[in-house]
Specification:
Strand content: over 45%
Structural class: mainly beta
CATH superfamily: Translation factors
Helix content: under 10%
CATH class: Mainly Beta
Shape: globular
Radius of gyration: 12 Å
CATH architecture: Beta Barrel
Number of strands: 9
Length: 95
């Protein structure tokens, strides 16, 4: 189990559990399986080519600058739509 006080050195990986549109932007909810994610970071769906920018990270309706493995988060992704990121999809670092 990930120590919530120690950053995970593994690459960022998250499984999408739900996606919804809010004010015209895709908000993706899920649990971070590994790594750390920061606002402004670029991510993409596994197997996809399109890159999305993490505009906002939220946990329990609180906006945070970063999140790490073991946390359940909501991500606002610039350039994404609900159809591009269905539940069960994996999101990873873009690089």
């Amino acid at each position: 189990m990930a120590d919530k006080n120690k950053p995970d050195a593994a690459p960022f990986c998250m499984t999408v559990q739900a996606v919804f549109m809010l004010a015209g932007k895709a908000v993706v909810a899920g649990s971070i399986m590994s790594g750390t994610l920061k606002a402004g970071q670029k991510v993409k769906a596994e197997g996809g080519r399109k890159v999305f920018v993490v505009e906002k990270i939220e946990i329990a309706n609180k906006s945070l600058p970063s999140a790490q493995a073991g946390q359940m988060v909501g991500l606002t992704l610039v350039g994404a739509d609900a159809a591009a990121l269905p539940a069960g999809m994996t999101i990873k670092n873009a690089d």
